[in-house]
Amino acid sequence: MFKTISLALTMALLAPVAAHAAYPEKPVKIIVSNPPGGPVDVMLRVLASKLGAAWGQPVVVENRPGASGIISTGALVKSAPDGYTLGMVVASSVTIVPFAVDSLPFDTQKDLQPISLVARTPFIFIVPKDSRSKQTISSQKSSAMRKLGIERDADLFRFAFETGI
Fold it and tell me: What is the pLDDT of residues 123-151, one digit of tens each?
């Protein structure tokens, strides 16, 4: 009798889980704030291909460039909140832009939820291989520090603190 009741109770508790289909059950769209063909778009398309293969559903990339991410983020905010439309933006689009633009059609604190860090991409200066500029970043930093009378990195932080920069 105990086994029968336990089995019935277990089945009753698992019924909602069994009835709910696995995500995703239809194509997923990712809205990106960058134009087609750029580094962010290419990286996202590789990621979308991998996600599509893992999920068994197509993952469609929709480019909505312009206005420092306001266009793409606005489109995301207006989409159905069903989990089938995601957005990928450069972090500054939702962290700096709200302070630089007086009126946005959305509130980044109330209307958006970050779900994952996708990549960390450093910005670097480059020159042609045969360029006359042979000065590396570290030698430029050393030169600038000498001009300011700074001998080591710790002094640089103190200088920044004292000058308020």
Answer: 777 778 887 766 666 676 677 767 766 66
Task: Choose among 105, 63, 57, 66: nearest CA to 84.
Answer: 57
Backbone angles phi, psi at 58, to 5 degrees: -65, 145
Query: Taking the model in full, what pTM does it have?
Result: 0.67
Cα separations in angstroms, 61 against 29, 79, 80, 84, 132: 6, 15, 17, 12, 42
Task: Judge if 98 and 23 occupy the same domain.
Answer: yes
Taking a C-beta distance cutoff of 8 angstroms, is the pair 44, 77 a contact?
A: no
Other C-beta atoms closer than 10 Å to the C-beta of 34 total: 22
Query: Which range marks the domain in which residue 53 is found?
Result: 8-111
CATH number at residue 26: 3.40.190.150
The total number of structural domains that make up the chain:
2
